[in-house]
Amino acid sequence: SWSNIDTELRRRYDLIPNLVSAVKGYAAHESALFAEVTAARRMAVDETGPPELQEVAERPLVASLQRLMAVAEAYPELQASEHFGDLERQLALTEDRIQAARRFYNANVRDYNRRVQSFPSGVVAWALRFEDAPYFTIDPAVRSKVAAAPDVTLGGASS
Q1: Distance, CA of 29 to CA of 14 (rounded, Å)
Q2: What whole-number distance in Å separates Cα of residue 71 and Cα of residue 81?
Q3: What is the pTM of this model?
Q4: CA dist list (Å): 37 to 5, 69, 111
Q5: Is residue 143 classed exposed, middle or buried when 0-12, 13-18 and 19+ CB atoms within 10 A define those classes?
């Protein structure tokens, strides 16, 4: 189940350079942010260790992607760009897939840890020195715009 997460993280890493270059043309004065996103991506790509180390490497990447998307929202012409819109949709889809893979992995970790800690499988786990596995928790870098409930107004009154 960890390989599912790894596959989706790699997909995210492949989308990031295209997203950065799409935003660069509109927000050239944000060069520090572009450097930050690139450095965070490099750090996350280079980390191939266990989930707890990958999680540490993902935090700066998620934060910098959130800032990049906030900058992109300030440029209506960028938001209207078909290329940027496609990249944004692909990134949102990838984030959804990462979260689904993370839930699947964490469910497997929960089941594994329960068996390591319970009797009689815990006796075998203790004898073979099996230990609890770590959960993988990261926030999504891009939240789906569909997630927010629309504001509905009927007859002048807000509901």
Answers
A1: 24
A2: 15
A3: 0.76
A4: 20, 11, 35
A5: middle
pLDDT by 10s per residue, the chain, length 159? 999 999 999 999 999 999 999 898 888 888 899 999 999 999 999 998 899 999 999 999 999 999 999 888 888 888 888 888 899 999 999 999 999 999 999 999 999 999 999 999 999 999 999 999 999 988 888 765 544 444 544 555 544
Cβ pair 140, 95 in contact under 8 A: yes
Using alpha carbons, list the distances in angstroms from residue 7 to 24, 38, 98, 101, 158: 27, 19, 9, 9, 44
Distance of CA 73 to the CA centre of its chain: 19
